[in-house]
Write a structure and sequence with these properties.
The protein is an alpha/beta fold. The chain folds into 2 domains: about 200 residues, DHBP synthase (Alpha-Beta Complex), CATH 3.90.870.10; about 150 residues, Rossmann fold (3-Layer(aba) Sandwich), CATH 3.40.50.2300. It is built from 11 helices and 14 strands. The protein has a 10-stranded mixed beta sheet, sandwiched between helices. Strands 12-11-13-14 form a 4-stranded parallel beta sheet.
Length: about 375
């Protein structure tokens, strides 16, 4: 049942109160957000949370993210970092499309937390959702309104009819929503870990595309990827791609490592003229796509260049945004020639997988 159809930015008082009452009764509703259409229910209500899992076709104890109206509310449910700098990093990301996974307080019900006793939290920027969370005075679970494994929805007409039949009500917006689920980061004492990137809106096919590959020192993995992709795509799509590589902690001007040069030469790639460079704001702005060699590099780039996160992918998961459970390509530096061979074999396999996806990005 469609409860209301709104223009972007509308949050009528009577509608807010009606939705709050429905959520308090244990109903599950499809609501627009600042990302995609979502399934929403009172996070305290275990039966409502289970109903969301049934609608999503999710088995097991997988937790959902929760949304709040303010940082004060968040602090009632999770343990926030004590260091001012770390706390500020989290606070500065809200309101907006960033979900932080943080340690849950002991008072949080088990059905809301993950196996590691954490809770995903977000303060959205959507006016209706902010008004609802403010009026409810309790967290709301929020998960994309699609069956598990299906793509998220930004247009009301694209909602799964079967899913709509199973929920208790739907609020639509006339215009399409923003188009991508929230970015998900886990806070740890050692720094943030990206679990899911939030990708930029698809811009359609381009005439040309700039691709930046990033590792640590820019003397092993990233120059190998740069060389492989450049050579393969030069054959398949001449003058359509430009590749560069860089390192998060690189010194400018270093040669590629000896083993990287030798192993690459064995399979037909020449790194003899490569010179390292550190990743910079200018390089990040130049790139249309940034491929991070590991999840650690992905997290570093998100911290260093937060305004560019929409174009950053984990090398081993591109073009998908989910990175949870994937680390990437281990650093072979300082290890044996055989380890280098294993590393470059892994890279070659990933490059073969990535090439068709990159070709879809350009006009040929």
């Amino acid at each position: 049942m469609v409860i209301a159809e709104l223009k972007r930015g509308e949050a009528p008082y009577r509608l807010v109160i009606e939705i709050v009452n429905r959520l308090e009764r244990g109903e599950v509703l499809v609501l627009p957000t600042d990302t995609v259409y979502g399934l929403h229910a009172s996070a305290r209500n275990a039966a409502a949370v289970e109903k969301v899992k049934r609608i999503k076709r999710i088995d097991g104890d997988r937790p959902f993210s929760t949304v709040y109206s303010s940082v004060v509310d968040v602090g009632k449910w999770v343990k926030l970092p004590e260091a001012d700098e770390e706390l500020q990093k989290i606070v500065d990301s809200w309101p907006g499309a960033v979900t932080w996974v943080l340690p849950a307080k002991s008072t949080v019900p088990d059905h809301m937390t993950g196996d590691d006793n954490t809770l995903g939290i977000r303060i959205p920027s959507h006016p209706l959702l902010r008004a609802i969370t403010t009026a409810l005075h309790d967290p709301i679970i929020s998960t994309s309104a699609n069956r598990h494994g299906q793509p998220p929805v930004i247009r009301g007409e694209d909602l799964d009819p079967g899913l709509v039949e199973e929920v208790d009500g739907v609020v639509l917006e006339i215009e399409p929503l923003q188009g991508n689920p929230s970015e998900v980061k886990r806070w740890t004492p050692g720094g943030s870990v990206v679990l899911r990137s939030r990708l930029s809106e698809a811009a359609g096919k381009q005439e040309r595309m700039n691709v930046l590959v990033v590792c640590s020192g820019n003397i092993c993995r990233s120059p190998v990827v740069e060389k492989m992709l450049s050579q393969k795509l030069k054959e398949k799509a001449p003058e359509k791609f430009l590749f560069r590589s860089a390192g998060t902690i690189a010194r400018n001007g270093d040669r590629a490592s000896l083993f990287a040069i030798e192993v690459s030469k064995e399979i037909g790639y020449d790194l003899a003229t490569h010179r390292s460079r550190r990743v910079t704001k200018n390089l990040m702005e130049w790139a249309d796509i940034v491929l991070a060699m590991t999840a650690d590099h992905l997290g570093d780039l998100h911290d260093m260049f937060p305004e560019e996160t929409g174009k950053v992918y984990l090398f081993t998961s591109y073009p998908e945004q989910l990175v949870d459970g994937q680390f990437g390509v281990d650093d072979p530096f300082g290890q044996s020639m055989e380890i280098y061979r294993e590393c470059i074999t892994q890279i070659e396999t990933q490059v073969e997988r990535i090439v068709p996806h990159l070709l879809e990005k350009v006009i040929i």
